[in-house]
Amino acid sequence: MRRFLVALLVCFALPVSAATQVLVTTNLGDFTIQLDEKNAPVSSQNFIRYVEDGSYEGTIFHRVIPGFMAQGGGFDKDLKRRPSYAPIKNESTNNLSNERATIAMARTSDPDSATRQFYINYQNNAFLDARGNRPGYAVFGKVVKGFSVIEKMAEIPTTTVRSMGMKDVPQQPIVIKAIKIIKE
């Protein structure tokens, strides 16, 4: 009986695997993203690679559309494109929806073109999900703390940078000052 109790205590004392969380520090404040590595392993690992190599630091949220989304991770404050790893496979059929506060991979019209850019949804944007044969945009996590910082981004006036062909660029740069994994 004593061995059974000791074994039972050891089982309950084992650490439970927690989801990876990433702390993002911007010039507007901090927010925390919880990754869904189970349902979006390729997108999550891709995101982690950019976090760990430090190349998200100094990038901006270059496209902010209130009521829709805030996109970042690809450009510095001078709108110079940051180098990227090879594109990843689209995981938009992972049963995760583009709901309020979720983070997803940005891409071109090529479904398998996502590299380093991501966006955070301001509202439920299910029209971005995969439907039938139409590929969607792969959700890979959710902002679990500090969503008010994301909301602050939408309060900054935006402009068009014609020389870059970019719309909805915040007039005040929203810079990722630091980004790190805080929990695994």
Automatic annotation (TrEMBL):
It catalyses: [protein]-peptidylproline (omega=180) = [protein]-peptidylproline (omega=0). Residues 1-18 form the signal peptide. It is an enzyme of class 5 (isomerase). One of its GO terms (molecular function) is peptidyl-prolyl cis-trans isomerase activity. InterPro entries: Cyclophilin-like_dom_sf, Cyclophilin-type_PPIase_CS, Cyclophilin-type_PPIase_dom, E_coli_cyclophilin_A-like. Gene3D superfamilies: Cyclophilin-like. Residues 26-181 form the PPIase cyclophilin-type domain. GO terms for biological process: protein folding. Keywords: Isomerase, Rotamase, Signal. Pfam families: Pro_isomerase. It comes from the Bacteria. Its EC number is 5.2.1.8. PROSITE patterns: CSA_PPIASE_1, CSA_PPIASE_2. Belongs to the cyclophilin-type PPIase family. PPIases accelerate the folding of proteins. It catalyzes the cis-trans isomerization of proline imidic peptide bonds in oligopeptides. This is Peptidyl-prolyl cis-trans isomerase. It comes from Photobacterium marinum.
